[in-house]
Structure formats: C-alpha cells, structure tokens
C-alpha cells in the first residue's frame, strides 16, 4: 500500500540521511521556513509522515497541524519527546532506531564507569596542568570485583552487564519486572539496589514513567563511597539532588552523558574533578550514527511504500 504525501523534516539530521530523503521522497525542512507556524497552517495537509530526532520529537502543536499525518519516524532510540499516546489516538504510527546503538552506548557506559572510578580524566588534567612534578595523583578506586548495579536491564542494560562480566564484578539490577534467563540478582526497587552496590549504572528509557527515578533517596542509599553512571536521559535523575550530593561529598563521583536541560550543565559540576561530563555522545560514532540513519530511512521508506514501519515503538 503506497501512502501519498510529503515528508516533514523537523530538524537537521545526519547528512547521509538527508541525502536519502531528498533523493527518494519530497521532503520539506521545517527549519528552512521563515515562519514555520504559518507554513504549517497553509501546507500541513500535504504531509503524510514526519521525521525528527529523539531530542526534538514532534511537539503537540506540530502534530495538530498535520491532519494527514500517518507516521512519525525518530532518529534515535528515545521517543519521549513525542506524545505517543496522543499520536496513537489519531492513528499515527511511531518508530525509533533500537538495537543499532546498543553496543556503542554500552561501551561508553563501561568507559565512563572505569573513568570515574579510576579518575582517568582527572589524572589527565593533573598532568596537563603541570601538577605531577609537585604532587602525586590521589589513589583511586578499583573496578574489578566491585558490586555493580544496573538500573534498567533492557537491550542496553544487558549489553553493559555482558561487558562488565569480564571484570569479575558482582552484578545486580532493577527493572520494572525480573528478566527471565539472566544470572544477576534482582532488587525490587532502585533504593534497594543502590544500597547494595558500589556503583549504579542507569540505562532506563526516558519519559514520565522514569522521571527522577534516581531520587535523593537512591543517591543517599548509594552513599559517599558510591558512583553513578548515567547514559539514559537526564530526566531520570533528580539533578538538583545529584548536584548537592556531589558538592557535599555524599557521593564518590559520577559519569554523566546526559542532563536535564541539554546542552546546559549545572555549573557546580564544572569544578568537580570526580565528575566526568560528556556532551551526550553515547551513540556518537560514525558507524552507529550511519546505522541509525539507515534504519530511520528504512522506517520512513517502508511506511510510504508499504504503509508499515520496520521498528515501531512498543
């Protein structure tokens, strides 16, 4: 079943993906319009599909301006920036790009854990500012053999667990429900998990259901010798509580790839040597981004040519 209509591109995307869109489908970049609101009021009925990034999504007012919209395609695994329930109530299908970024996100999570526990980035800064001749670098924390908790044992969480197995760590996890067939200990709440581990790696999906899942109570349970790694979404952590815990010395350190108000990072964190700050780069490798672009295009093309999506969101 061929679906007639143009494609609305809501934000800049990967160059190779944009090239494929232009080559195969009539695509309009909303950001190119001098007055996007006026443009949608005049032309919204022309669009059958929208493509966007996980960070931008499709705002409600844009969705409402597209009466013939049949599919929303996200470049990225996240889709909490789009009101999926609202879309489905209108019969709009929604897709994302799962699986293809699992390895890179898991790699970065493990790298962040090693960095913050061993102080690698801090040690690099120590050398670069010429401090080594006058002072040795403080002792760090061993990674191998530690108790590591994973919050969210989905695709990415399990990939993180697989990598950490090689370090001889004691793995435990919390998810909405126990996961069949895994050998790791299950805890029935984030607080219970945090109280029993040396480091907590956060790998849950974003959205309202996980907002501030890592609460002040979870951070208190993790304690002054505990470490936090977040490669999910900034909204999953109570960010003011995290900042306070780090500034007050009630948490040993954190590796953060995501923040509540990106690209803005809480200023108190900038001066802390025990915090690794990354600009949301967990999936930012050439290989993974190209795979994400290819899958996003496949979703869009399949919808417009067959009326279905390859990877609809659950």
Summarize the structure.
The protein has eleven helices and twelve strands.
Structural commentary:
With 314 residues, the protein is of the alpha/beta class. It has two domains: 6-99 and 287-306, Rossmann fold; 102-277, NAD(P)-binding Rossmann-like Domain (Rossmann fold), CATH 3.40.50. The chain is built from eleven helices and twelve strands. It has helices at residues 15-24, 36-43, 60-64, 84-89, 102-118, 120-128, 155-165, 190-194, 216-222, 239-247, 286-306, and strands at 6-9, 27-29, 47-53, 71-75, 93-95, 147-151, 170-174, 185-186, 199-202, 227-230, 253-256, 275-277. Strand 9, helix 9 (216-222) and strand 10 (227-230) form a beta-alpha-beta unit. Helix 5 crosses helix 7 (155-165). Keywords: NAD, Oxidoreductase. Belongs to the D-isomer specific 2-hydroxyacid dehydrogenase family.
């Amino acid at each position: 079943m061929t679906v007639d209509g143009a494609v609305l591109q809501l934000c800049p995307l990967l160059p190779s993906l944009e090239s494929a869109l232009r080559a195969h489908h009539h695509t309009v970049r909303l950001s190119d319009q001098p007055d996007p609101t006026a443009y949608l009021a005049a032309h919204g009925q022309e669009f059958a599909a929208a493509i966007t990034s996980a960070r931008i999504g499709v705002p409600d007012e844009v969705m409402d301006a597209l009466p013939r919209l049949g599919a929303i395609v996200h470049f990225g695994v996240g889709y909490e920036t789009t009101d999926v329930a609202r879309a489905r109530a209108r019969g709009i299908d929604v897709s994302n790009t799962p699986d293809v970024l699992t390895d890179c996100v898991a790699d970065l999570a493990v790298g962040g854990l090693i960095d913050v526990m061993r102080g690698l980035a801090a040690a690099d800064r120590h050398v670069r500012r010429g401090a080594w001749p006058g002072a040795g670098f403080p002792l760090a924390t061993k990674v191998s053999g530690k108790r590591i908790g994973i919050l969210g044992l989905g695709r990415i969480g399990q990939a993180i667990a697989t990598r950490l197995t090689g370090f001889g760590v004691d793995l435990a996890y919390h998810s909405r429900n126990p996961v069949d067939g895994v050998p790791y200990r299950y805890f029935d709440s984030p607080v219970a998990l945090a109280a029993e581990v040396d480091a907590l790696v956060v790998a849950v999906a974003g959205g309202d259901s996980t907002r501030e899942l890592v609460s002040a109570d979870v951070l208190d349970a993790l304690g002054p010798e505990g470490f936090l790694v977040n490669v999910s979404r900034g909204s999953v952590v109570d960010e003011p509580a995290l900042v306070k815990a780090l500034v007050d010395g009630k948490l040993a350190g954190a590796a953060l790839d995501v923040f509540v108000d990106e690209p803005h990072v809480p200023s108190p964190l900038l001066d802390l040597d025990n915090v690794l700050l990354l600009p949301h780069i967990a999936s930012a490798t050439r290989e993974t981004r190209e795979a994400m672009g290819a899958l996003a295009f496949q979703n869009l093309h399949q919808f417009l040519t067959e009326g279905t999506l390859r990877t609809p969101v659950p």
